[in-house]
Structure formats: C-alpha cells, structure tokens
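Throughout our pipeline, every protein is held as a single compact record rather than as scattered files. Nothing more is needed to write down the fold, since each code stands for a local backbone conformation. For reference, a complete record is included directly beneath this paragraph.
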Amino acid sequence: MPENYYLDNPDIAFQLKHLDLEQVVAMREHDYAQAEQFPDAPESLDDAIDSYDQVLAMVGEICGDHIAPRAEDVDKDGASLENGTVSYAPGTRENLEDLAKAQLMGVMIPRQYGGLNMPVTVYSMMTEMVSRADASLQNLFGLQDIAETINRFGTEEQKAHYLPQFATGEADGAMALTEPEAGSDLQAVQLKAHYDEKTNKWYLNGMKRFITNGCAKVLLVLARSEEGTKDGRGLSMFVCERCPELVVRRIEDKLGIHGSPTCELQFNEVPAEIVGARRRGLTRYVMSLMNGARVAISSQALGVAEAAYREAHDYAREREQFGKPIIKFPAVYDMLTHDKVHIMAARALLYETTRQVDLRDCYEERNAQADKPDPMMRKLGKYHSRIAAALTPLSKAFCTELANKVAYDCIQIHGGTGYMRDFPAERLYRDARITNIYEGTTQLQYVAAIGGVIQRVLDPLMDELSQMPYEGKLRRLASAVDMARQKVQRAAHYVDDRDDSEYFSLMAGRLCEMEMNTFACYLLLRDALKDKRREAVAECFVSDTRMLVDAYYEVVTSGDVSLIDDHEDILAL
C-alpha cells in the first residue's frame, strides 16, 4: 500500500511544529502584508504553519504514491546521451511532471514571480522526503538554489526573465563550477569570460566537469573574467542558457544516483550575462551557492538514511532465523536503535541549521532593502550569518556520514540478500556514497567549520539551550552535556594555543565531531522538553556523545605528534 512520506514520519511534523519559525515567517511575509496582495499568502504564523503542513502532506503523497515506486526503474534506466542531447529516464520525466503540476518547482521563489515564498526549512523537509523516495531526483528538484541565487543577486531584468520559468518548471538549473583541474580548489578555475564591446555581451569559453544536471536550461557559471589573474579575485558569476554553443561532451557512468546526469561541458563562445558584481563570483556568490548546496545535500543524505533505516527495520521484523524474527536479537535491535537515534539527532541538527539560514537570509534581505539599515538589524544579521556559517558544514558532515553508516547497516541486517539487486538496500548504499563527497568532502567541511569551533561561535546558542527549564532526568542529562562541552572548549583552546598549523589540521576533524555531537545533544534535550517520549532518545545520544568526547579529548590534548612525525615512514611501508 502506498505511503505518505510526511504523514508516516511524525518527526518531520514535530520539527515543523516546534521549531521557532515566528520571526522567519513574519520577515518572509513582510509582516503578513503580502496577504493583501496574494490570496494564498498567510495572514498569521498559525496560518503559515498550516499551509506548510498541507503542502508537505501533498509532497509526501507524491513521494509515496509515485516517486518511490519508480525509483528502481530510474536506477536501472539512468540518463542517456545521444547526438549531444541528454534524456532523463522515463520515470524521472514523470516525477518532474508530477512535481511541476503540483507547483513545487519554485518553493522559495517570491510570489510575484509565481513561487510559493516558503522558507529554506520547509523546502529542506521536502527535499528530505524526495530523497527518501529517490535520491537521484533530489539532484534535480534540489537545484532550486539556482533560482534563489538569481533572486538574491541578479538584476530586476534577470529575475523577471528567469524566475517565472523556474516556478512553472519550464526551466531547470545547474551550477557549473568544477573543472578538470579545479575540483575543490575553485580558485584554480580557468574557464574564460570575455566581453565583446561590439555586441555588448559576455562570452564563455572552456571546460566544466562533474556538473550535476549539466544539461539544464539555465546554468550559473563560475568563470575567469579578469585577464592575467590566477586567484579567486579574478572570477565572476555568469548566467547562460542551453544553446548550440554549449556542448554536453559526455555524461559520467556513476556508482549511484543514476537518474541524475553528471555532465562534462564544452563552452564555445556561449553568450552569458554577469550576475552581481564583477570579481565577486567566488568570494560572494559561490559561497552562497555552496552554503545552499550543503543544506540540500544534508537533506538528501537524511532522506537516504531514513529510507535505509526503514528497509532494514522492515526486513528485520519479517526475516526469521532460529525460530524468531531477527529484530529480536540484541545485535540487530541495538544497531537499529542506534541508527534511529542518530537520524533523529541529524534531523534536529539539520532543521536548526536551516532555521539559522532562514534568519540570516531574512536579515540580509531586510538590511539590503533599507535606505539606512538599523544598527540592531545589522548586528542580528551578522550574528545569524556567523551561526549559519558554522552550522552548515557541520550539518553536512553529520548527515552524510550518517547516511553512509545507516546504508551500511541496512545491507548488514539484510545479509546476503542486501547485496543483491532484488532489494533496495544495495541501491541506497550506492546512492549514499556520493553525499559525503560532492559539494565538498567531509574533510573539507571540517576545514570550513573548524574556525567557528575554535572561535566558539555556537557557544551563545548552546548557553541558551543549556539554561532551558530541565528537570529530573533531563536536568541530569543537560549537566552531562555541559561537562562534555567544557571538554570541547578546553580541547579547542589547547589546539589553538599550540600555534602549530599541522597539529591544528590533524585535530580539526575530531574537534568538529565533538562540537556537532554536543550541539545535537542540546537540541535533543530541547525536543524532549516538548515531548517526554523523546527522553530515551536524548539519553541514548548523550551517552554516545560522552564516550566520543572523552575519547577525542584525550587524543586532542595529548599533544602527541608521533603520527605527524611518522606518517611518511608509515605510508612508505
């Protein structure tokens, strides 16, 4: 029987109901003044939450009734390239048509351009469900950040031209950043942009590689606009459209997410328009794109983890060995319990992250539109910007590593059958693997996050969470988390005080894991205050986190540089 992927997962509805979205919604709705102009605009917070709830239920129904049943065929059929034209799998085309008919291709686009004007948080909930149904579809549905970037940084003419096309599903998008010699190091981008004064246009020439949905109608392209430059200050952001001068040379034969074409592109005098200010392509606009991408991939990974957990749980209940279902065996139910708890922790972390991203975006928009920004508004904008910058890489690291762990456990619980294509377990395992690689590997997320960990950016937020009115068991658990956080603080200060860049880099991953797990503990305690049934979840996760923090604290503060000193000898063996 088909499922509704929203109604059968009360944890998403719990987050929607209990996250403090009052400020986010009021600012997005211009203090609800939009209700006077648009009949579908909410008149209050309760009205908005009710609207979000209804749309999420509709997405959940589409995912359960249509997208999930097509996922196996999409994986087998994949995308294809013939005579320079990329074709989606039949199931993918049907999925996109269903989403477009439901008017879900412009979730965050403002209403004046035909969008739903919903927050990042609600959109992320949608992408989680879509990813649970078919992870590869998220790479198409989840690229709505392309439209959001044009909305934030494009001219009025660009917004009027592109955004209505995105909202109806007529246009899809891609971000063309990486090149054969410029993967994670985007400062090395060489694709050239030159301005022709005769035609009054920019033109793009060069190669891009590993471009998700590179066959899209609209592409945002990072290109070198300043002749003679070699670093990020010579790069600008451009928008262009699919045309004969833009050639798809090949699509990659990938391990997973087969429904999403990953393309190699050749630009041969492709006409383009600059987006935003010249020379700020990498430093301003790609950073914005990458932050959005981190959130999207976190949602994708969480969806895969949820799907893998459910496949494992259902199989364990049905599969009998030695006269009883295998879910009755401690080794199995311990694995499932651990996965369930960590998925709930990941969800709490992700949606607190998206809430902070929403607040950052709202303040940035409000300050940009003000003739004379209020000092307090500027201060709040900077605060939420720092919080969001700290949380987005931590969320991606947590969610994507978890997706791989749960997908691994899913196959393990299935045993030999999980290795076969007869069950979804092996597809989920393959789909999960890319999540902690693209849009920045986990190791690069730690590089992005470690500054915030050392500077204790999240401490004000953790102070608030620590001081909530916990009682009884929750008070004891909160005290245990407080002590764990003190160890994280001491470890961060220890590494910072050493003034040893190599030791700093070596310990960055451990410090980030300590930080994100401790923060997630506080979020689960906050959730347990609102629903007593969640106390067991918080207790289990706090126990795991204390062990992790204790172990890493000893390593980080030992000052042991033997691994640094001996790594060349070890690797040479």
Notes: Residues 447-558 form a domain with the Four Helix Bundle (Hemerythrin (Met), subunit A) fold (CATH 1.20.120.470). The mean pLDDT is 95. The first helix runs from residue 10 to 18.
